[in-house]
Design brief:
This protein is an alpha/beta fold. About 40% of the residues lie in helices and about 25% in strands. α1 links the parallel β1 and β2.
């Protein structure tokens, strides 16, 4: 039994994080226990406290708790503060330190693994929750030209835009405005629509020439958005599996001081996903 780590979410049974971190630990020769813990919004704070009480040294946080996680932290990294959300918790003494590795994970996947240039792109971000908050600052840092945020509740989109502090590059719109805001070079689905409601109704006019479409979810939850992207003519279409592996590697590095090699882990998970789709 090694040091204790976990991923918290609701639901979380589907999470690939325990498998990913087990592979990382094996790769670098570290003994660690990493489990998935399901906690509702009401139970999250108590679950984190209980985990710390039994020796938990670090945690990943997924939907829907990333903003709550930041509120529990005594200190936070600049990227977590900019995002207003934490997906990585580090135990120091009797306190939690918060970080957010989602954005750097997404950018690393797209620019290093996929060899895509994000600079100068006009980007549409669908959603303004914890996942969207995690990636928005890193996209701006990567040199995109414009970020347009569309969310079901306008106040959350406005709050994210205000937090980013770049009014010349960041804009918000209502979902009803989508047919009239032009075409984009990159469209990111950071909503949970693919998980719980059967997908988004989006106009094809959003997809510009050679558009890049990314769903921050992976597997089944990303199917409907990526199907839309294919029908809309998007040249590149990716789910969030690569981002998941890269953000996990950044979390692992925060906990253990060394960043694992992500390529073999991504290849393994991709092969398994392809096998499952073939079986279906």
């Amino acid at each position: 039994m090694g040091a204790r780590y976990a991923v918290f979410g609701h639901p979380v049974a589907h999470s690939l994080s325990p498998r990913i971190h087990a592979e990382f630990a094996r790769q670098v020769g570290i003994a660690m226990e990493y489990v998935a813990i399901d906690a509702t919004a009401e139970d999250f704070a108590a679950a984190i406290s209980s985990f710390a009480a039994v020796g938990g040294l670090g945690a990943n946080v997924t939907l829907p708790h990333k903003e709550r996680a930041l509120a529990l932290c005594a200190h936070a990294s600049e990227r977590a503060r900019r995002a207003g959300a934490a997906n990585t918790l580090i135990r120091e003494g009797n306190e939690w330190i918060g970080d957010n590795t989602d954005g750097i994970g997404l950018v690393h996947d797209l620019t290093e693994r996929r060899r895509l240039d994000l600079r100068g792109r006009r980007v549409l971000l669908l959603g303004a929750g914890g996942a969207a908050r995690g990636v928005a600052p890193a996209l701006l840092d990567a040199g995109i030209a414009e970020l347009w945020i569309v969310n079901r509740t306008a106040d959350k989109a406005d709050a994210l835009s205000d937090a980013l502090g770049e009014p010349d590059r960041v804009h918000t719109r209502y979902p009803a405005d989508l047919p009239d805001i032009g075409a984009f070079d990159m469209i990111i689905n950071a909503t949970s629509a693919g998980r719980d409601s059967g997908g988004l109704a989006l106009p094809f006019s959003l997809a510009g020439t050679r558009c890049l479409a990314v769903d921050l979810s992976y597997g089944e939850a990303a199917i409907s958005f990526l199907a839309w992207a294919g029908a809309a003519g998007c040249e590149h279409r990716f789910d969030g599996l690569g981002m998941l592996v890269e953000q996990a590697a950044e979390s692992f590095a925060r906990w253990h001081g060394q960043r694992p090699d992500t390529d073999p882990v991504f290849a393994m998970l991709s092969a398994k996903a392809d096998a499952l789709q073939t079986a279906d």
